[in-house]
Amino acid sequence: MDQLQSGIRITVRAVIIQQGKVLLIKKQSLADGIRYTLPGGALEAGETLHQAVKRECLEEIDTTVTAHDVLHIADFFIPKLKPQPYTRHQLEILIQCQVPADYIPRSGCEPDKHQVSVEWLAIDTLAEHTISPHFFADLLTQLSSPQNTIYVGAVT
Predict the structure, then answer these.
(1) Do the bridges between strand 33-37 and strand 66-80 make them parallel or antiparallel, or are there none, so unpaired?
(2) Buried b vs exposed e over 98-113: b needs ≥16 C-beta within 10 Å?
(3) Which ranges of the chain would DSSP assign to H, the alpha helix?
(4) Residue of 8, 9, 24 whose CA lies nearest to 99
(5) Using one digit for the tens of pLDDT, what is the confidence trace for 35-83?
């Protein structure tokens, strides 16, 4: 492992599931092509987890959400190349959220870098898409499992 960056980045992600579909942000870039990820981002100083996920949803998917339980927590080690090779330790916290019944997917006023749209994808088709980070696809398909584990440890 390259030099481990000091400090842990805490991120929250909204898991919004309705009628067998999950709400995802679609991103596109020359380097990575088309990929999907959960709405969310870094916790800011003084924010609770629920405050952060609500703010991130307003910024990225242009709606208020109701935040419920923490579904998963994972340690994620992200290799970075610039300014010199290092590894960022990120704590990913997935929170069950709900959008208003009349919500129509759309990007918010502060979309993620490379965000091109917001889409509902059927959970049973996630394997057909590139989900970023890749472990999200497995987690999302296992949410209804009675053996659902909240803390999943280190993921690669």
Answers:
(1) unpaired
(2) ebeeebebebbeebbe
(3) 49-61, 135-141
(4) 24
(5) 999 999 999 999 999 999 999 999 999 999 999 999 989 888 888 777 7
Looking at the domain covering 3-155, what would its CATH class be? alpha beta
| Domain residue ranges in the chain | 3-155
The answer to whether residues 26 and 119 touch, using CB atoms and an 8 Å cutoff, is yes
Tens of pLDDT, residues 89-141: 999 999 999 999 999 999 999 998 899 999 999 999 999 999 988 888 888 88
Q: pTM score, two decimals?
A: 0.87
Give the bridge partners for 9, in sequence order: 90
DSSP letters for 67-89: EEEEEEEEEEEEEE-SSS-EEEE
CA 43 to CA 67: how far, in whole Å? Answer: 15
C-alpha span between 40 and 81 (Å, rounded): 23
Distance separating alpha carbons of residues 67 and 101, to the nearest angstrom: 15
Which phi and psi angles does 81 have, rounded to 5°?
A: -105, -25
